[in-house]
Fold:
Amino acid sequence: MRARNHRHRPLRIVAATLLATAVLGLAPAVAKAAEYSAQGSGIAIIHSNDVHCAGLATSASAIGYAGIAQAANDARTTYGADNVTLVDAGDAIQGQPIGTLSTGADLVDLMDAAAYDIAVPGNHEFDYGIPRLQELAKSASYPYVSCNVVNTETNTPLFDAYQLETYMVDGNQVDVAYVGITTPTTLTSETPTIFQNASGATVWSFYGENDGQALYDQVQKTVDAAKAAGAEYVIAVAHLGKGASSSVPECYTSTAVVANTTGIDGVIDGHTHEIYNVTLPNKDGEMIPVAQCGTQFQAYGEMTITPDDTPGPEDVKSEVVVARDLAEPVAQDATVAAAVAAKQEALDEELGQTVGTSQVGLSVYAPDDEGNPWWWAARMHETNLGDYVADAYRALLDADIAFINGGGIRAPQTWVEPLANGTFGKAAGPLTYSDFISINSFANSLQLVEVSGQDILDALEYSVRMLTPAMDDETESTGSFLQVSGLTFTANIAIPSPVVVDADDHFVSVNPLLTRRVSDVKVMGEPIDPHGTYRLATIPLLLSGDYTMFEDCTYLRPDAGLDYDALVSYLQDELDGTIGRMYENPDGQGRINLEEGPITVYRLYNPNNGEHLFTVDVNELQTLVGLGWRSEGARFTEYGDTDDPDIFAGTGDLEIVYRLYNRGNGDHLYTTSAEEVAALVQLMPNNEGWVSEGMAFLAPTSSDVPVYRLFNPNMKADGGAGSHLWTTSVTEKDTLVDLGWSYEDVAWYAIEALQS
Structure:
């Protein structure tokens, strides 16, 4: 590893000159290096991006800071000791505990150890505040550069717009400018107060105005200034990403910046955690190499320049080295590996320190049939730990509502203290930083979005779709069950779920023919407005996964820090370091009320055509009565909990009762046979015959109360071909058979017959 001062660096651009560059587009004067220890036949730029504190890896299967340092060493052997530059394209100092606990300092130390030459601030470099970022930049041996971050009150840029490096190639001096670009979405993705003055006014700009044009103009001015200062080549080190996404508008992508500028010869990209090595057209149609290396050292890049008499992008070549594709172990620089090991040892000690305490036990595991810790309780019902996590998210983002999926709440295997409600978890006592990492072990970024009340209602339906009263095996729990903050609701988990999902179990819709399980939804004590809008704090998994109702949400803060950091911040900043008696009940604070009531099956009769219909939906019952149908009352009841021997004598298994509708004669038919459904639907595929209306309700396979199905071939009203009727009454069955109805066998079994 070369010494930090082995090559003389160009003088930094002074603030006044940078102001002219940023505001007026003038070219600053930059001193050039005067001494060189070696001459090579080309220039190599080794680059990383979006490391997010993952550089501590020193294993043979990972890259890490020791690995990229060795890659730079190897390049120096090929290109010459002074012809290799090590560059980072942002988001290096945030993402894991080592970043949070040192507020970035440990990562700057490791980048210094690896001999980085240039870094660009990504949006997460601002997580610890601008004053802290300035401190880190001052302490680093490498410069931070960015052309598009300026204080509008003082007209002062935060960093130099570019860095000019000088190389000797085949006896000729070659100057290369590294232009830094930070995504304008930083202004909205980070905590707003970071960019405000004492009066609350936003005073920092990232040139995000005019749908990208301000950014393109600023980049072009900087490129022109670098060329005027003597740069033969310009490499943009950009924290942008080449494709649009929920957090990156198209106008702020590297694709758009390249397409709207000239003079850039290569782009080292970052921000979107992708791996790519492509060429993109600039404003003049020239193809510019653009590369990004994923995240957390999945890969590193090597961009090379072979200068000639007519400098241009055709002289720049790019390669991305992906760790998993390497046939040989990743070589490690021994000196950097030792520095990494020292940081890891200190980190392990700090993670074990107490950051707060809990006065109450925190519920984690549900009991199995023998009463032993079995499965994550947060997957099945509200828990006090789930309340705490959701409250932390909502507090950090100042949201109306917060959601966290139960599968995202974990805990150490040692948290098995018996709690008052029969669950198991963390006993009252001290909490360490490591404890909170275990709770939110996936290190998700928090996001703040704006959603409709109807989206919230649909999400709650999807959340409880798998629950039944008999939560006694793993298949009946689901990681998508939500723990909530800011709202309360009731769900009858005994009735069939009306949620329609696709083959991948993603939300599709709520069947309007079935009763919703969820009711009495209140946000901060007020009934939810389906047409209103609400600020929701959650994680990316819920916004881009199974919960498809949120696909079109409006992102207010798409990247607002790590989830486990929110848990620590909430404890220390909002609760004064103590989880208190408000979280005393292991079952939570009564936000989620799961009811297990019976399902009442109603029968209606249409006197105009003689048709019968069954429904468990009171709304459908009332609607049809208003249209002229006659209610024949509750015929029987069904229960979701069919494994309980006290409810009925049977196998304990459920059958789905399907409902079909005949468009030709208006008849409805109920069956437990999926084969019958398929056969009837296929009889007339031109949509003039039977169509499936989905699951009507659930029935046990066996009990003491058979439900008889009869068919009347003589029912010809309105051109109909017949009518079906279901009854639990033997007398009614026999009477109808005497009148000409055909008895078609037991359709299914009911639990309890009711009087008409």
